[in-house]
Design goal:
The complex is a heterodimer of chains A (796) and B (452). With 796 residues, chain A is an alpha+beta fold. Helices cover 43% and strands 12% of the residues of chain A. The chains are: A alpha+beta (796), B alpha/beta (452). The interface between A and B is large, with 90 and 87 residues.
């Protein structure tokens, strides 16, 4: 590590040589001496900052008096704070006297050089929490990788509370409820993995979102069908299962859209296994009976399958096509269904079970013995099965002690004629509740003084890597490399990281990291006002999320510059989203890359033009330039507005008429000085996206008035519309890359990023900049950075 | 032993809807532990506490009962559904939560049961205070399988930054068993059922499953202890915390084993599988489960969040109001919006009325479940338009056994801490502490003094 950093710093110093010369840099010692007497930051601060930030006014609780006496090295946190404001050109505020950009540049370069020099001499890695429980996503992935078993952890474990924008930050707690749930989950999973028999059949019910339109084809189901659902489901044993279907009812308890007979089919892995017709009820209007016969006994082999339920698409008749102003059809009053829809699917079983069958989990678990040749007895067999599982679960080499206790579970479980497999099931449950599996522990080496910086062990490092990139356990290759001690050898590490990024498990960075960074998970709870946004349904919600995930995924897998997240002139669309966006000639439920290169007045492309983000940052009834502005500042620029001050406006002041147009209403808001200090920063950013309505559709007018999309950034730049905003953001790619790095680092370490991490982030960004900000260069820089490689012992 | 549970008390219809038709249901009839030993109740007349949280305040003009004579003679529009239970309910006017300021949604939720100031942080160093229900649970929960039961209605998780720089734990969790331990709540009826009654199955299977759990917990304890040697002093404190957690789960299992041995439950149990689609049915099912838990004496302390603060849920079917609740609560003093919001408030209160009705309909000892319970209903926000934490909408309901004087309206001229009410209720169930949160005393006139 040190070598990499030294090289990096050295190359940076060379690159910055002309600027550095300003401070009279002849050699490190000389520079230090000069700094103490007079440095350019001092001049600038004296001239522009002291009106507000002296001891008397102390604005924002920040006094810079006496700062000149402190070299960047002697008080790095204070100087980082100053640097951040100056680098973003947020201070002095617009309207006050501000330095020229050359002045800004000179001071920024000086401070960065000095701060980075200090940091490279004494890296500050910070301290991650010692105990970090696997959160729900990590647990689900770990089970998949350990036992070749796909589970739905949301059904087994409670929510993880997000903090700092991510749900893997506050994971030190273990409440009785949570432990209880982990124990229950372990028992269920162990039973499912070995395919143990149950005395009574189990069951699960899957409900389709009520606002899912089922008039068209749903991806994954056969062409020629419409509506329905596709459920990935692991069947515990070979046997018969009962699949029962219920249709969606309206408020009057009638089956919606059932005006003529409709055919419905059940599919296992794409093959039809059952078929039935539903007919409108007779004169008695008894809708109860309509779907009572949709109950099928189907023989199914144990293991993972896809259960599909779909309607056969009736040939388009006049009744269905005469009036199609809307795509969404799920609301009996506004846009009623024209054909019946699925409400829920229940799977119960097994009945007449014929054994555990042949499943990926059983092959993984019991296959070990086959490879081991002839084994003398059950105990030796059990050992051969459990040892490799335990090795992966504990993410470290295991010893006889580890196995000894586990084998007791095997013995107890297999006793009294329960049999070999029951013993393995019992031992599996024990592995899955072991704190060494459930909790990632990073321990300080013995004998270090408080506040000492040290390199974490290679095994801990392997876990950091895999939980960062895969949100799961390290695989054997990582564990072996860590065991050999060459995981952190630079070329080996780069190879490992590239291998991990190319692995399908890395999609986790799109579906887990990016979904949290960009607030995509918020889409689930978004419910735009059905009166205004009559065409919003679950299909659209799903397509919006998919667009952004695929878009991010593409940047990652094609290793594109991360700036393309903003600048891209292409995106990924299916028919539903294309219709929503007004992009013509795109048919079918599968997503594909769509390029808008060379189009004048381009409307779609990068993140800021995607429905997902534009919708989660809006209210149910209208856009919110405040939320959008703050979202961009916090997630793309890295300069979030501070939370509202403690002195909440008095009662009478809070009445702003709700009938003014949005821009005018917010203007009234910004007249109050207490609100203005932040809203002046947030609102103009959001205004530039006013061409997109609250569900991300393009618009030129709002309430019959032309849209005014003039906006600005806190650094004083002014522009119009989304392309103006994009250009302004891309003018400082380093700020965007630094913000993304901050988010990645928070996610990777499971702790909040502090001012003391700033030098590390700058180093990562500089390294990436040299490589055109390619995605992999950020990841490689991050895993080589002190916060990811090292840790500090606690200070009392 | 006069308290055989009547069949009528079963929430059968509700379960039926929740489950869908795939499952056979008759077993549910027998789900109630019949003949709860009412003899156990002699020691304390009030043996259980329930807390129901309503999000985002209300329209105070339609909440506050009219009349100044201290009687609840005329119910306000929002409280109208409580008419059948008037003699069991006391309304409070002008209670406040000082520690919830600066006004926010996160602190409305977090201070409601803690009366404590939430440390302003988004990170894992969050700090609040032990909540009233958890203090009660330490006392009332000693002899029950679950010390307390935490329920909510929101299945989806909130993401990203929650509210004004407060970690999401403040906004999502009502109950905190210590200042650093928020207790997650459960919204899924099946999972609540499993916590109360296990996975079901036959008597033998339930017993075997409990034994396996007990031995897994021994193993967890050993494994945690073995970690201890490798850690510094700061990290060892966490280990002690983990071990406490394991012991608490062990205690529950022992209790559950005892319960299975006594077998108040029928030989076979079947669970509700799904979540009812309608909010009303889901909420009623959650109330039904609380009634069952109390009736079976599985727990004596419950908390229930009717919706999260800043919830954008709409109650169109229930109230005819199509607006999402949160934006509507920032009504900008628009009279139409206020009227619509009041409908949502009244709807939430009507669910509480349903809860009271169910408790009143379930016999226990010489009276009903309600007679031996105290329930607090209310919000941590007064006027939601401005995130105000004064003049909170608060009700207390309870029955004869505790000597609670119902049918009244206690109105204060100057704001009085809500913590005083918490302290008073805790005192009533035998938690004797001097202060709670920002309390300044007890509320003396809520109960009839005990005549000796």
């Amino acid at each position: 590590m040190p070598r990499f950093f030294d090289q990096l710093i050295a190359s940076c110093l060379r690159a910055l040589a002309p600027a550095v010369a300003i401070s009279g840099l002849l050699g490190p010692q000389v520079a230090q001496a000069d700094v103490a007497s007079v440095h350019p930051a001092e001049v600038l601060i004296g001239r522009y900052c002291m009106d507000c930030h002296d001891d008397t006014i102390n604005k924002g609780g920040l006094s810079l008096e006496g700062i000149a006496a402190k070299t960047p090295a002697s008080d790095p946190l204070l100087w980082e704070k100053v640097l951040r404001k100056i680098d973003h050109q947020q201070m002095p505020p617009i309207g006050e006297e501000r330095p020229s950009s050359a002045e800004y540049q000179q001071v920024v370069t000086f401070l960065k050089t000095e701060l980075d020099r200090a940091a490279s001499a004494a890296p500050e890695p910070g301290r991650t929490d010692t105990f970090r429980r696997l959160n729900r996503t990590e647990y689900q992935n770990a089970i998949r990788d350990l036992l070749a078993l796909q589970i739905d952890a949301t059904a087994l474990l409670p929510n993880d509370e997000p903090a700092r924008g991510f749900d893997n930050v506050t994971v030190g707690n273990l409440s009785p409820t949570l432990l209880d749930r982990y124990v229950s989950a372990a028992q269920k999973i162990a039973r499912l993995a070995v395919g143990a028999s149950r005395k009574t059949p189990g069951g699960d019910t899957f409900r389709v979102p009520p606002d899912l339109t089922q008039e068209g084809h749903i991806e994954g189901l056969p062409l020629g069908t419409r509506g329905g659902t596709l459920i990935p489901y692991t069947f515990p044993q070979d046997g018969e299962y009962e699949i029962q279907i219920r249709l969606a009812r309206d408020r009057n308890e009638q089956v919606e859209g059932l005006k003529a007979p409709h055919d419905i089919e059940v599919l296992i892995d794409g093959e039809r296994v059952a078929f039935a017709t539903v007919k409108p009820p007779g004169a008695d209007k008894n809708a109860e009976a309509v779907d009572q016969h949709l109950k099928f006994r189907v023989p199914i082999k144990a293991g993972p399958h896809h259960v599909g339920v779909a309607f056969i698409k009736n040939p388009s008749v006049l009744i269905e096509t005469e009036r199609q102003p809307f795509v969404a059809r799920f609301n009996m009053h506004r846009h009623p269904r024209t054909a019946p829809a699925l409400y829920q699917t229940s799977i119960t079983g097994p009945f007449n079970s014929s054994g555990p069958g042949d499943t990926p989990s059983r092959r993984l678990i019991f296959g070990e013995t086959a490879r081991g040749g002839v084994l003398v007895n059950d105990e030796v067999r059990a050992r051969a099965i459990l040892a490799p599982l335990l090795h992966r679960a504990y993410r470290r080499p295991i010893n006889d002690d580890d196995l000894h206790r586990l084998l007791q579970f095997f013995r107890e479980g297999s006793a009294a004629g329960a049999g070999f497999e029951a013993g393995i099931e019992s031992a599996l449950a024990a592995i899955l509740v072991a704190p060494q599996f459930l909790i990632r522990v990073e321990t300080d080496p013995a004998g270090l003084a408080p506040g000492t910086v040290y390199r974490i062990s290679d095994l801990e490092f392997a876990s950091r890597l895999s939980f960062f990139i895969w949100s799961s356990l390290p695989d054997n290759e990582l564990l072996e490399a860590a065991g050999r001690g060459d995981l952190r050898q630079p070329t080996a590490l780069e190879q490992q990281v590239r291998r991990m990024l190319a692995d399908p498990r890395a999609l986790n960075l799109a579906t887990n990291f990016a979904a949290q960074w960009l607030h995509l998970r918020g889409l689930e709870s978004v419910a735009p006002d059905v009166r205004r946004f009559i065409d919003f349904d679950d299909n659209l919600r799903h397509s919006m999320r998919r667009e952004t995930e695929l878009f991010f995924e593409n940047i990652m897998s094609a290793d594109r510059p991360v700036t393309e997240l903003i600048s891209a002139d292409y995106t990924f669309l299916d028919e539903r989203l294309a219709k929503h966006y007004g992009v013509p000639h795109l048919y079918g439920s599968h997503f594909r890359r769509v390029s808008f290169a060379g189009m004048a007045e381009r409307q779609r492309g990068g993140l800021l033009r995607q429905g997902s983000i534009l919708t989660v940052t809006s209210y149910a009834t209208r856009t919110s330039p405040v939320i959008r502005g703050n979202w961009i500042l916090a997630n793309l620029v890295g300069a979030p507005a501070p939370p509202p001050p403690p002195n909440v406006p008095a009662l009478d002041d809070s009445h702003v008429s709700a009938t003014l147009p949005i821009r005018a209403r917010l203007a009234a808001h910004r007249e109050k000085p207490v609100c203005a200090s932040c809203h002046n920063l947030m609102d103009p950013v959001g205004f530039s996206l006013e061409n997109f309505d609250a569900v991300g559709r393009w618009r030129m007018t709002e309430e019959q008035l032309p849209v005014d999309a003039k906006g600005g950034l806190p650094d004083g730049s002014k522009f119009e519309g989304v392309s103006g905003l994009e250009q302004a953001l891309l003018a400082r790619p380093d700020l965007f890359a630094a913000t993304l790095t901050e988010k990645l680092l928070t996610f990777a370490l499971g702790r909040g990023v502090e001012l003391s991490d700033a030098p590390a982030i700058r180093a990562i960004v500089r390294r990436a900049e040299a490589d055109d900000f390619r995605f992999s260069s950020l990841i490689l820089g991050l895993v080589n950075s002190p916060p990811f490689q090292m840790r500090r012992t606690p200070t009392p | 032993m006069s308290s055989f549970v009547s069949k009528k008390a079963l929430p059968r219809r509700t379960f039926l809807r929740g489950i869908g038709a795939a499952l056979s249901l008759p077993l549910l009839d027998a789900m109630i532990p019949a003949a709860t030993a009412s003899t156990k109740t002699a020691a304390l007349p009030v043996r259980r506490l329930g807390y129901v949280f309503m999000p985002m305040g209300c329209d105070q003009s339609r909440w506050t009962p009219r009349g100044t004579d201290g009687k609840l003679s005329e119910l306000s529009p929002i409280l109208a559904s409580l008419a059948p239970h008037r003699e069991h309910v006391t309304a409070f006017t002008n209670l406040e939560l000082r520690n919830a300021y600066p006004g926010s949604h996160a602190t409305s939720n977090s201070s409601f049961l803690s009366a404590a100031k939430a440390k302003h942080t988004e990170s894992s160093d969050y700090y609040l205070g032990t909540t009233a229900d958890q203090l009660a649970a330490r006392q009332l929960g000693r002899d029950t399988q679950l010390a307390s039961l935490e329920l909510s209605m929101d299945m989806l998780q909130t993401t990203g930054q929650c509210d004004n720089g407060y970690a999401c734990v403040y906004q999502n969790n009502l109950s905190w068993s210590s200042p650093t331990t928020p207790l997650p709540s459960e919204a899924h009826p099946r999972i609540v059922f499993e916590r109360l009654f296990g996975e079901g199955g036959s008597l033998l299977e339930r017993r075997a499953s409990l034994r396996q759990r007990a031995s897994l917990l021994d193993w967890i304890t050993e494994d945690i202890s073995s970690l201890k040697q490798k850690l510094g002093p700061a990290d060892r404190a966490k280990i002690a915390e983990y071990l406490d957690t394991v012991r608490e789960v062990e205690r529950r299992i022992q209790k559950a084993e005892a319960d299975v041995a006594l077998s108040p439950l029928p030989p076979d149990l079947e669970r509700p599988l799904g979540v009812p689609a309608s909010y009303t049915e889901h909420a009623k099912l959650m109330f039904d489960l609380q009634v069952l838990a109390m009736q079976g004496d599985i727990t004596r302390v419950t908390t229930f969040q009717l919706a999260r603060e800043t919830s954008n849920r709409t109650y169109a079917v229930e109230t005819g109001v199509a607006d999402p609740h949160h934006p509507l609560s920032h009504h900008g003093n628009d009279p139409d919006k206020i009227a619509r919001m009041a409908k949502i408030n009244a709807f939430h209160v009507s669910l509480f009325a349903y809860f009271l009705e169910r408790l009143k309909a379930t016999p226990e000892g010489n009276g009903t479940l309600l007679d031996h319970s105290l329930l607090l209903y209310g919000s941590g926000i007064g006027n939601p338009n401005v995130h105000d934490h004064t003049n909170l909408p608060i009700l207390v309901a309870g029955g004869a056994a505790g000597g609670m004087k119902g049918g009244r309206h206690i109105r204060y001229d100057k704001p009085v801490p809500l913590a005083n009410l918490h302290l008073t209720l805790l005192d009533k169930v035998g938690v004797n502490i001097e202060r709670f949160g920002d309390s300044s005393g007890k509320i003396t006139d809520l109960f009839t003094p005990l005549s000796v």
